[in-house]
Automatic annotation (TrEMBL):
List of catalytic residues: 176 (proton acceptor)
Species the sequence originates in: Streptomyces kasugaensis
List of residues that carry N6-(pyridoxal phosphate)lysine: 176
Superkingdom of this protein's organism: Bacteria
Organism phylogeny: Bacteria, Bacillati, Actinomycetota, Actinomycetes, Kitasatosporales
Keywords on record: Aminotransferase, Pyridoxal phosphate, Transferase
Assigned protein family: Belongs to the DegT/DnrJ/EryC1 family. L-glutamine:2-deoxy-scyllo-inosose/scyllo-inosose aminotransferase subfamily.
Claim: Transferase is one of the keywords in the record: yes
Protein name: DegT/DnrJ/EryC1/StrS family aminotransferase
Length: 352
């Protein structure tokens, strides 16, 4: 059956079209157009942070953050075992080495196990707010203070969670809480870090000569067309988060009494509705046949070919990745849609 309920669908019902139309009419479509600055200011203001640096993706946001903090070859960065691979790749792109820490029961990095991974080479701790659950940032910031480390927050799945790290990085990919199609943004209170990220984002042009470049930089710029969409989405972020909160409540209520389903801890903001299920693969196939798309949990980093570790240190991450998945989670999902989806999950276990 065709997909009737995709896992994700953007909600572009605000000023998105009007703003994009304006960029087209004015001809200011590149990164030099006015919407990039407007989006940066609005997103930073929303989060109570001084500076925003928009860029081409969440992955490039993380890369810019690490480069601005001076991370490079020989350095180590502590990252979660359970995350999307871009968190680890950003470290690898800089020439540094990611050091993985297993997750706790909330899927976030187990902060009690970070300290044992800190060495003289460690420069940065990079926690991720997985599926919209805020990581214990007090614990991370205390460790960073004690060991003189910097902190980059991977907030790709947690727009609306208040940032506290040196730099917080967001993705604006189409399946994230807010989107610009493709895109990302870094937030920081430090004007020098903001300036450095903006410099690295745009090919490190210098004042001395139009085409003198003193360091290896990137073209990670966001276009004004993307920023136009991102700004319109930011204006509605509270509304989007509130709608997502209702989706979470309805799934929780509908699924709670199914014995083969294990609900996950509450979320600070809802990105994807994650859960664990007995006979997950059969259930997913059954749901797919009913037009309900689902997606597996992340595959742990130590199981990825690029980071394969035969010691297999990530016991929790592996346990969760074996029976975890997520259900369709987007703001257009109605009560009826959710009742149907929950009903099909129930029907699977009643029939099998
Ligand atoms: C989506 C995501 C990214 C990457 O963002 P892109 O915009 O796709 O590059 C990084 N980290 C996490 C945790 C993500 O979920």
């Amino acid at each position: 059956m065709a997909v009737k309920y995709p896992v994700s669908r953007p909600w572009l019902a605000g000023q998105e079209l009007a703003y994009v139309t304006e960029t087209i009419n004015d001809g200011w479509i590149s990164s030099q157009g006015p919407y990039v600055r407007r989006f940066e200011e609005e997103f930073a203001r929303y989060n109570g942070i001084a500076h925003g640096v928009a860029c081409s993706s969440g992955t490039t946001a993380l890369t810019l953050a690490l480069r601005a903090l001076g991370v490079g070859p020989g350095d180590e960065v502590v990252v979660p075992e359970f995350t999307m691979i871009a968190t680890a790749w950003a470290v690898t792109y800089t020439g540094a080495t990611p050091v993985f820490v297993d997750c706790g029961d909330d899927l976030n990095i187990d902060v009690s196990r970070i300290e044992e991974k800190i060495t003289s080479r460690t420069k940065v701790i990079m926690p991720v707010h997985i599926y919209g659950r805020r990581c214990d940032m007090d614990a991370v910031m205390n460790l960073a203070y004690e060991y003189n480390l910097r902190v980059v927050e991977d907030s790709a799945e947690a727009h609306g969670v208040r940032p506290v790290a040196d730099i917080a990085c967001y993705s604006l990919f189409a399946n994230k809480i807010i989107t610009s199609g493709e895109g990302g943004i870094c937030l920081t209170d430090d004007p020098r870090l903001a300036e450095q990220m903006a410099h690295l984002r745009a090919m490190a042009f210098t004042k001395d000569h139009s085409f003198l470049h003193k360091k290896l930089a990137y073209n990670f710029r966001m276009t004004s067309m993307q920023a136009a969409v991102a700004l319109a989405q930011t204006e509605r972020l509270d509304e989007i988060l509130a709608a997502r909160r209702e989706i979470e409540k309805r799934y929780d209520a509908g699924l709670a009494d199914i014995p083969q389903i294990t609900l996950m801890p509450a979320r600070d903001v809802l990105w994807m509705y994650d859960l664990r299920a007995e006979r997950r693969e059969e259930l997913r196939e059954f749901l797919a046949a009913e037009g309900i798309e689902t997606r597996l949990f992340f595959k742990p980093m130590s199981r990825q070919p690029g980071y394969f570790d035969p010691r297999w240190p990530s016991l929790n991450a592996s346990r969760f990745s074996e029976d975890g998945f997520y259900l369709p989670t987007y703001t257009g999902l109605t009560e009826d849609d959710q009742a149907y989806i929950v009903g099909r999950v129930r029907a699977f276990y009643e029939a099998n």
